[in-house]
Amino acid sequence: MSTKHTFTILCLLAAVAVSKLFLASCQPTPPEPTATLAIIPTPVLWHVQHTSSLRWMTPLMNQCTQEQQDNTALITSEISAPHLDPNEADFLLYWGEPDKPAGYAATVGWDELAVIVHPANTISHLELDGLRAIYSGSVLSWRELDELSPIKGDIKVWSYAENEDVQQNLEALLALRTITPRAYLAPDPEAMLEAISRDPAAIGFLPLRSIDASVRTVEAVDASVQALSFPIILISPTEPQGAQREWALCLQDNLSD
Description:
This protein is of the alpha/beta class. 31% of the residues lie in helices and 23% in strands.
């Protein structure tokens, strides 16, 4: 091959290389990747006030909230019955018949009032008159009710503050206006349960759904299930609609099982 031909080929190769470099430099620069921001919806907050008698309902309230599809979050507050405030909550939950509830009220379930004693106490049943005598203070010792009782000394009567819903349920059952001044006061059912479980001479009462194996129930032989059962009342400013209605129905469905 002649020098002239070799030079021509080299020139052609150089021209091709330059054209490729030029074309490459003219290609558009790919855009920088951009981060996508996830939009997190603001949770819908519902506030529920309930009495200590309904503390056992907290897991169920949370379960029914989690079943909602609208990013709902629940705030629960345990409030003494006289201080439940419909202006500070979406819902109130009360055990028993409240006095003139403001707004909308519906029964979502029932619970029984249960009389409890220490497991060492052998008494298995009481008539309402006997229970009334204990709580009025006219009977002071277990052996006045059962001569063979292994429990010596006075009955340790436990009660609650007079305006608490659980206390009003007992007074309604026994048709009592006043409780013996000798009664010890429990701040809530959990404290009542602990007190009775530690003292063989003690007697108290709880919502049936709050009882565990640390105490024993005493049958009220002449009281029907209906007489011992009290409604769980849901109160709201207006009748619940939409997701709030579904939440209330969830409570009702589970409490009817």
